[in-house]
Design brief:
6-stranded mixed beta sheet, 5-stranded mixed beta sheet, globular, about 220 residues
Length: about 220
């Protein structure tokens, strides 16, 4: 049976940095998800423990495309524009077919990998990624050069980057070796707070009218 894995937290820092023992990745703008693959079945679970039900076809693709019997992957559900950048609103409003951007491997074929260093988990993750065209993608990393990488991310209007200690284990709770550095000029942040506030208000009214929704 697959374990229930609390997701590794991200801590915000303001400035990018360089370090030879750190990996740097694009911060994809979507919904964080853990993919629980067990044979021909897969569940996509949010960081708060809720099962995503909007993308059953993506879960099916993960179950059949990832080359293993069982696994737990950490990643981001995103919609991609033609130039490869993520588009949050296309995902939120279900306008496009989503992708799963896999950036970590926590469990593989009955073996718990969380105490392995990130560099080893990344190596094993790459081995099980699909070898054919797929909506399951591997998130590659840049080693050491976080400042330059952050500059490129900002120039291309990306949300930012994530810094991860290459020797770090996968933990939960207050301790973490994952840092996020956000692009302060990222265009897709405009109006997002207001959008979520209006959706929360609408959901609250729906729950008042339909008490059973309060259980969700």
């Amino acid at each position: 049976m697959l374990p229930v894995v609390p997701p590794m937290p991200l801590v915000s820092v303001r400035e990018p940095f360089d370090h030879p023992e750190w990996f740097f990745e694009i911060k994809w703008d979507g919904f964080r998800a853990l993919a629980y693959i067990d044979g021909h079945q897969c569940r996509l679970v949010s960081r708060r423990g809720h099962v995503y039900k909007s993308w059953p076809y993506l879960a099916t693709e993960l179950a059949h495309a990832v080359r293993c019997d069982s696994a737990v992957l950490d990643g981001e559900i995103v919609c991609l524009q033609p130039d490869g950048r993520s588009h949050f609103y296309n995902l939120m409003f279900r306008r496009e077919w989503p992708y799963f951007m896999a950036f970590d491997l926590l469990w593989l074929d009955r073996k718990d990998l969380r105490n392995q260093p990130l560099r080893e988990r990344k190596r094993l993750l790459k081995r099980i990624m699909p070898r054919v065209q797929s909506n399951v993608r591997l998130v590659e990393q840049v080693v050491g050069r976080g400042a330059d990488f952050f500059g490129v991310a900002c120039e291309n209007d990306l949300e930012g980057i994530v810094a991860k200690w290459a020797g770090g284990t996968y933990q939960h709770g207050p301790g973490t070796s994952w840092l996020k550095i956000r692009n302060p000029e990222y265009s897709q942040w405009t109006g997002r707070r207001e959008l979520f506030e209006s959706r929360r208000d609408g959901l609250s009214r729906s729950r008042w009218a339909r008490p059973e929704l309060a259980l969700l």
